[in-house]
Amino acid sequence: MNADQFKGKWMQFKGELKQQYGKFTDDDLTQIEGSYDKFAGKVHERYGDKKEELMKWADQWLQKAAPETPKDKMR
Q1: pLDDT digit string (tens) for 18-34?
Q2: Are 69 and 63 in contact (CB under 8 A)?
């Protein structure tokens, strides 16, 4: 997951995240503030045993939310 893309989509992402994975508190989301590294740390803290599953979900969410690049449109 690209950290810049993650930061750019944070406002949309955090709503989906809280809906999908309810252990995240509002304070957690405020602390993360779009930082991929902080997000990964909170994922480990809240969902240690499910970290791989949650990170995979996050990557898939970002891929769906990312706009097509001009290269993609040419295909």
Answers
A1: 999 999 999 999 999 99
A2: no
Tokens of 8: 């750019």
Is the separation of the CB atoms in 12 and 20 below 8 Å? no
pTM of the model: 0.78
Euclidean distance between CA atoms 51 and 24, whole angstroms: 13
The distance from CA 61 to its chain's CA centroid, rounded to whole angstroms, is 7
Concatenating the DSSP letter of every residue in 29-42 gives HHHHTT-HHHHHHH
- Determine contact, residues 1/59, Cβ cutoff 8 Å: yes
């994922």: which residue's tokens?
Answer: 43
